[in-house]
Amino acid sequence: MSLGKQISTLFVAAILLGLGARVTTKSDLPFWGFWQPIELVAPKLSLADEAISAPVDSAFAVSDKPYEVNLATTMVLYMKRKKDNVHFVDAREDTLYKAGHIPGAVNIPFEHLDTYGEQFLALPKDHLIVLYCDGGDCHLSHDLAEFALANGFGRLAVFTGGWAEWSKETDMIATGGE
């Protein structure tokens, strides 16, 4: 057998073996083309015997403690805020909020819940609430999350990097009161 015929035979055998292995293994990879993006599934949840449909963003399902999120996740949530009903809450003092905050965030200083508590409680309890403060050693967002949990909010995320990381890494900054 000539060298060209041997190479052709080996090439065909390799293709057939590869196809055979592909058919016999169970894989989520598409046979042709590219990976498809994973769609978030909206599971059915039951809350006090009342069936409700979880938001599309079910990665943040109702929980008894807040999720802690990094800058990348926070930026994705920021981009999806209108479509997926995501609200941003700044737990810092009013003066710090006015000096700079995430655009669209509402200011509810944890230290002044007696004044701002009603405004916070007016937020939709079934929407995802992203809380932040200065980041690092600042615990105001965690304290506000505890207040929210005690008042029936179940979809909470605390941006651990806070304003310090957001203002350093992005140019999406608002100033003044909204």
In short:
The chain is α/β, with parallel strands linked by helices.
Structure commentary:
This protein is of the alpha/beta class and 178 residues long. The protein has helices at 3-24, 71-79, 94-99, 113-121, 140-150, 162-169; strands at residues 44-47, 50-53, 67-69, 86-90, 106-107, 128-132, 156-159. The chain has a domain at 60-169: Rhodanese-like domain (Oxidized Rhodanese, domain 1), CATH 3.40.250.10. The strands form two sheets. The protein has a five-stranded parallel beta sheet with strand order 3-7-6-4-5. The chain has a two-stranded antiparallel sheet with strand order 1-2.
CATH fold group of the domain at 60-169: Oxidized Rhodanese, domain 1
Content-based structural category:
alpha/beta
Task: Give the overall average pLDDT.
Answer: 83
Task: Give the neighbour order of strands across the main sheet.
Answer: 3-7-6-4-5
Please give the CATH architecture of the domain at 60-169.
3-Layer(aba) Sandwich
Q: CATH class of the domain at 60-169, please?
A: Alpha Beta
SSE topology string: HEEEHEHEHEHEH
The general outline is elongated
- At the fourth level of CATH, the homologous superfamily of the domain at 60-169 is Rhodanese-like domain
Fraction of residues in H or I helices: 25-40%
Q: Describe the biggest sheet?
A: 5 strands, parallel
Number of helices: 6
- Spans of at least 5 consecutive residues whose pLDDT stays below 50 are 38-47, 49-56
